[in-house]
Amino acid sequence: MSDQDLLISGGHVASFDPAIGDLPGGDVLLRDGRIAAVGRDLAASTPGVPVLDARGRLVLPGLVDTHRHVWQGALGGSTGKVSLSGYSGAVIGGLAPFYEPEDVYAGTLWGALQALNAGITTIADWAHNLPTPEHATANIQALHDSGIRGLFLYGGPGPDGLAFFGRPAPPHPEDVRRVHAELLPTGRLRLGLALRGLAFTTPEATQGDFALARELGVPISVHVGMAGFPGSVETLDRLGLLGPDVNHAHANQLSDHEFDLIAATGGSISLSPSVDMLMALGTYPATGQALARGIPAGLSVDTTTGAGSDLFTEMRLGLAAERSRANAAAVTRDEAVATVDLDQRDMLRLATLDAARVWHLDEEIGSLSPGKQADVTIVDLRPPHLDGFGDPVTTLVMGAGAADVETVIVGGEVVKARGALVGPYAARARELMHESRARLRGRAGLPAA
Question: φ and ψ at 436, to 5 degrees?
Fold first, then answer.
């Protein structure tokens, strides 16, 4: 199906639109790539429209991943027992230099399909393995071919190779001007800049990178607040660089003052609970610190090299970590805790409407609201692990995985149906990924898989 009218009928609709709320046994009408209506018994007023039976399913806004290195889609399982420095050595230093444009295409296509398979319809692609314009073109083409909606966040390393990170500190690749002018082939993709920031380059280079982004009028993402890289937000403030166009990835180890600076300047935060804790980026994700200050925050996978590829896992880990952080003092005093903060619906909002707010896309996506893009995820609640007694959203957040995502729709186009990806690239992507994996292992001197 492609941009045709479709009535999703009889599911439990979790709209995240405050004017609509939840609708057990509700309908969602899609027309011309947008949501036309949300309500009950819409079939009577839409004769002849194809009907998708959603009884026993949960109908959600398409999920939004606010920060992922999509080019690493072919590298699953390549970093297990590693910290951030181990990941950097194994992937950024050890494998990234062996990527040719066809490997970037294969990895990005496979990574985008991983996301779609897990119900993620929008992704912020932090693309930082682009040493030539051809690599950038391949990355963008793969996103386009996958059918996903998203932001292509143009990063390094550029023609200077890994010297782009650290010293010497060349400027951001000028090829971004070409991309800005020519290369975005679909309305589903937007451009932003993935900047090194003060953790990975000099203040002077950072100032130049921010100036380039603002000259082009595109949003910025930068890594901050990771253990071992203190003071980055305070320094950005001293340089006069903070603003509502800045997305702060991770933000684990920031001071209260730095969180206050982000809030005061309208910035956003991308939370990566799995990677934040598995790679020792910080003690806890920044979930509670962001929400307490009203900072737009959304969940993300970050890298799939040693973590999962879905946001259901991030919801569960994010909720557990924040409750642990919030209750740590009382537990240390051996006190029984009477109540806990945040619930499962809060976490699903961090993967939908709040995540859309991170990238200023909440007028277009993030809720099932009439007029918004027809981005919809439908999860089958009938399997034993999800067919429960209570709130379907609670059940979903605590138990669902990518295999439970039955249908995924982006802009009115069905990209996953009856539990399987569909479309011209679904089958070919696996072959391309396997071919790329064999090439990369050979170039790196690793044994065949």
Answer: -65, -40
